[in-house]
Amino acid sequence: SGVVLVLMEPRGEDTTAESPAERLMEYNIERPPWNFRCVRCLLCWIAFLLFMSLEVAIHATYGVSEDTFEMEEETPGWADYLTLAEAVCRSCLVVVLMGFAWEVAMLLFREGFRAVFHVHFFSSASRRVRLVGASFTIMTVIIGAWGVLAGPDLPLWAAVYNHVADIFCHAIVTSSLVGVVIDLSLAVVKCRVGHFVADFCMCKDNIEQHSVTGRCGMAAEDSAQPNADQSNQMVCIDLEENSMPVTEVTALMRYAQAGSTWLMFVFFLCFYVLDHRGEVPETVHKTLSLLGIACWAGIAWWVVDRLVRLESLCLELYTDDGDI
Questions:
Q1: Rounded distance, CA 182 to CA 176, Å?
Q2: Which residues are bridge partners to 3 per DSSP?
Q3: 139 pairs with which residues across the strands?
Q4: Given this model, what pLDDT does residue 74 score?
Q5: Are 276 and 73 in contact (CB under 8 A)?
Q6: Are the C-beta atoms of 308 and 316 separated by less than 8 Å?
Q7: CA 66 → CA 69, 163, 261, distances in Å?
Q8: Which of 59, 153, 187, 208 is deepest in the core (most CB within 10 A)?
Q9: What is the arithmetic mean of pLDDT over 120-146?
Q10: Could you count the other beta carbons within 10 Å of the beta carbon of residue 265?
């Protein structure tokens, strides 16, 4: 989550691409009504804040210490949910990383090595987020890696920092589970369960997209409108919406993406279950822990980006001309 790719316009114009009117018509058919989106967004944020509130209540009652962290992991019911949230986080993070890798591969296949692309940051409206977001993300990665390598010798302040990152991770997973249930309910009502499942099977969708960091986030769907001006915005590669014609080769690459992604998903999920049972070597345990740090890094970037967007929104509300 935190980084996307900015692409140059293709040199050749694809005659097989849909017209803007056709894309807009298809988008309006697929897009849920605005009142449903508002309710979904509200419920996802309620789930996110509810989990955060429970964690605050736990530490307000029992304090902030290593003993409290261990107590959470040993409390029946609560510990089981934390284990489920962690399994969803680790395995779905693999899906996101595999999707990013295949996006880069599809870009190279489409444009070759002459393609000009670079890693950009999520909000081009506030460029200072680049420095703040990158600094916060790097700091999170360093402290997280320190916690994995140091183990019980980690200072309390660093352990608290990592625990807060874990809380954000579990809260986001909670919101994503709520979002999936809501979107699945809509698919059932509209008799589109097959499309809903197919998007997951072909890796066109993932659980994270149903959370507060995905399409339920602030202004997430507005920026996805086909008729929006995205010349100065971040653009994610979509294997279905780019201008590359659907040939046999690209179709095979999409099936290869789905197959390899599901393979890695099952692989890491099995290793996480074995790690939870204590049946893997220490090296594998640390590798899985380092994978979780990648999730923390994305969350760190997301927090900075949302704070900057919130600041911009406040400035728009309290300035006469709305020019930031």
A1: 10
A2: 121
A3: none
A4: 86
A5: no
A6: no
A7: 5, 10, 36
A8: 208
A9: 75
A10: 19
> Which tokens is 109 given?
């296949």
For residues 222 and 313, give the distance between their C-alpha atoms in angstroms, rounded to a whole number: 14
In Å, what is the CA distance from 243 to each residue of 9, 222, 252? Answer: 10, 21, 17
Half-sphere exposure for 75 (CA within 13 Å, toward CB): 11
Q: CA nearest 188: which of 175, 197, 179, 176?
A: 197
> What phi, psi does 3 have (nearest 5°)?
-130, 145
The DSSP output letter for 207 is G
Q: Average pLDDT of 42-52?
A: 94
Residue 183's region, left for phi above 0, alpha for psi from -120 to 50, else beta, is: alpha
Distance between CA atoms of residues 171 and 47, nearest Å = 7
CA angle (28 as vertex; 27, 34 as ends), nearest 5: 120
Average pLDDT, the chain: 75
User: Can you tell me which residue has the tokens 């429970």?
Assistant: 54
pLDDT exceeds 50 at position 68: yes
Residue type, 134: A
pLDDT, tens digit, 9 for 90 and up, residues 86-109: 888 888 888 888 887 887 777 776
Q: What does the DSSP assignment read for 139-165?
A: HHHHHHHHHHHHGGGS-HHHHHHHHHH
Runs of H (alpha helix) within 9-127: 20-30, 34-62, 66-74, 78-111
Give the pLDDT of residue 87: 87
- Per the CB < 8 A criterion, the answer to whether 95 and 267 are in contact is no
Rounded Cα distance between 40 and 176, Å, is 11
